[in-house]
Amino acid sequence: MKRLLWPTLAGLVVFLAASSAHAQVTLPSVNLGFKSTNNPQEIVSTLKVLMILTVLTLAPAIMIMMTAFTRIIIVLSFVRQALGTQQMPPNQLLVGLALFLTFFIMSPFFNKINNEALQPFLNNQISQEQAVEKSLAPLRVFMFHQTRSQDLELFVRLAKMDTPRTRADVPTTVLIPAFVLSELKTAFQIGFIIYLPFLVIDMVAASVLMAMGMMMLPPVVISLPFKIMLFVLVDGWTLLIGSLVKSFG
């Protein structure tokens, strides 16, 4: 294998060197530095670049805190703990499944953002401020639909602001933590319901082992195959994913 690999790599290097000798390769370059300027336009452009980098840095937090991801990943983690399968499914698989389910649930809102904010902004039809406002509008509709009234009232009181008359009067900085709190409550309620049947199986297995005098055998060793069998027989993944998606309706 090595006898074939090294001549192949050597030939590839020679080919690239010969190609670059006959054809000029253009590579992009980026210059970083500091300079003094009196042109306001350059300062504005620099600030826009910094704002874009900041938004890209906060993109994971936006995905987690303003979409369906929080509820989905918590419920999936509860299912794994209730089954007692340790690291199966692995964390990477759960996060990937949660991301794709989030994209599926949020696709109508993302499409609206693309059609009403992103594309008009790229076509120079609206300003940057208008694009940000139009991008937030669909997300606010989604968060309002999933947020409990008492959670929203809590953060309105904590913000020490006047009672909003309409949803448009609620700041996004107040809506986001209220939405996250509501998502945590909903996810833990779903997790409690999921835990109950598996808890019964654990209790039955522990009682049977205790009655047989097998104190040294962990009940999890006996209950785990039955929990997996129950989850497979009732088509657990289909029921779980279907219920999760419907819970955002």
List the topology elements:
Blueprint: H1 2-22, H2 40-57, H3 59-65, H4 69-83, H5 91-122, H6 128-146, H7 149-158, H8 172-211, H9 219-233, H10 236-246
Helix pairs in contact: 4-5, 4-8, 5-6, 6-8, 7-8, 8-9
In terms of DSSP E residues, the strand content is under 5%
Q: Which term fits the overall shape?
A: elongated
Number of E-state strands: 0
What structural class do you assign from the helix and strand content? Answer: mainly alpha
Query: What's the order of the H and E elements?
Result: HHHHHHHHHH
Count of alpha and pi helical runs: 10
What gyration radius follows from the Cα positions, in whole Å? 27 Å
**What profile does the largest beta sheet have?**
none
Distance between the termini: 56 Å
**Helicity range:** over 70%
* Nearest-integer average pLDDT: 75
Stretches where pLDDT is under 50 for at least 5 consecutive residues are 1-23
